[in-house]
Amino acid sequence: MTVDEELGLKDSEPERKRKKIEDSSLGKSVTPDVPEDLDFLVPKAGFFCPICSLFYSGEKAMTNHCKSTRHKQNTEKFMAKQRKEKEQNEAEERSSR
């Protein structure tokens, strides 16, 4: 299950909404003036939590997420990891002097 599905968000299915034309020389549908690699991009506006790797489209959902036990636990783990890395870097600097 994707994050969007988990949150009840569903892409607007851009493939269905794009106007396609039939390319008679290739015998397949193509999207006019759109490079193939752009088909995978979906524009979104909202909030991304890098600690939990979750995206929220609304401010209320983001606020609720920040209050959640899951986010608080992930933040604790993240901060502990940051402290440990900082201590290791400082120890390496001292030993290299």
Automatic annotation (TrEMBL):
- Tell me the keywords, alphabetical order: Metal-binding, Nucleus, Zinc, Zinc-finger
Per UniProt, residues of the Matrin-type domain are: 47-77
Q: Where is the composition biased (Basic and acidic residues)?
A: 7-25, 73-97
Is-annotated flag, keyword NAD?
no
SMART domains per the record?
Answer: ZnF_U1 (SM00451)
- Which residues lie within the region annotated Disordered? 1-35, 67-97
The GO terms this record gives for MF are: nucleic acid binding; zinc ion binding
User: What do the Gene Ontology cellular component annotations say?
Assistant: nucleus
Looking up SUPFAM superfamilies in the UniProt record yields: beta-beta-alpha zinc fingers
Task: State if Glycosyltransferase is listed as a keyword.
Answer: no
Spell out the subcellular localization from the entry. Answer: Nucleus
Q: What is this protein called?
A: Zinc finger protein 638
Q: From which organism does this entry originate?
A: Catagonus wagneri
